[in-house]
Amino acid sequence: MTSNTAGRTGIAFVGVAGAVLLAGCSGSAEAGTAKADPSPTSTDATAPYADGTYTAEGAYQTPETIEKISVTLTLADDTVTGVEIIGDPIAPETTRYQGQFIAGVSDIVVGKKLDELDVDRVAGSSLTSGGFNQAVVGIKDQAVVKDQAVLEDQAVIKDQAVLEDGAVAD
Fold first, then answer.
1. Is the residue at 121 inside a domain?
2. How far apart are CA 117 and CA 34, in angstroms?
3. Which of 68, 100, 74 is nearest to 86 (CA)?
4. What is the 3-state secondary structure (H, E, C) of 42-53?
5. 107 compared with 28, residue with greater pLDDT
6. How far is residue 57's CA from residue 54's CA, in Å, rounded to a whole number?
7. Is residue 140 a part of any domain in this protein?
8. Any signal peptide, and if so, which residues (predicted)?
9. For 161, left (φ over 0), alpha (ψ -120 to 50), or beta?
10. For the chain, how big is the Rg over CA atoms in Å?
11. Which of 5, 89, 140, 151 has the fewest C-beta atoms under 10 angstroms from its C-beta?
12. How many domains does the chain have?
């Protein structure tokens, strides 16, 4: 069985400076949602995450098969600054739904705190969000700061960047 790999893969990438759609997929973008936990128990409930780019896989069940997506998130100050998703649909209708999801997800997740991400529907695609949310859990596990020294290093690097831009230090 031959497949058209280019036709089965869609990528969306968003940078802080603006949205750039790299995928050849297009579709009407219905409003999606990202839900935050309505009642956080304390400010310590959110974990600090190391700045960087992280990738994890997510899977979800469709009526025909189990589909997978690869999610890459770029984080700065615990906030999503970029997203890239690669889909590899098996079922024919999954191509459309993954394409719609990929085309619309950046508008929902970029600029949000990582701990606030809980995507439930994007541009008519509701099942793909299950794979996305599963991948986000994996990304959180990778990015969580396990060592206070990492946070201190990030703070020093950010302070140095400010000074290099010509800001006056106190």
1. yes
2. 6
3. 68
4. CHHHCCCECCEE
5. 107
6. 11
7. yes
8. 1-31
9. alpha
10. 18
11. 5
12. 1
For residue 168, give both structure tokens: 């006056």
Q: Is residue 39 part of a domain?
A: no
Interatomic CA distance for residues 60 and 38, integer angstroms: 25
- In tens, the pLDDT along 92-139 reads 999 999 999 999 999 999 999 999 999 988 988 889 999 999 999 999
Task: Give me the DSSP letters along 46-110.
Answer: SPPB-SEEEEEEEEEE-SS-EEEEEEEEEEETTEEEEEEEEE---SHHHHHHHHHHHHHHHHHHT
What's the angle, vertex CA 36, arms to CA 19 and CA 50, rounded to 5?
65
Q: CA-CA distance, 23 to 102, in Å (whole number)? A: 8
**Token couple for 147:** 């060592």
- Residue span of the structural domain in which 154 resides: 5-30+50-164
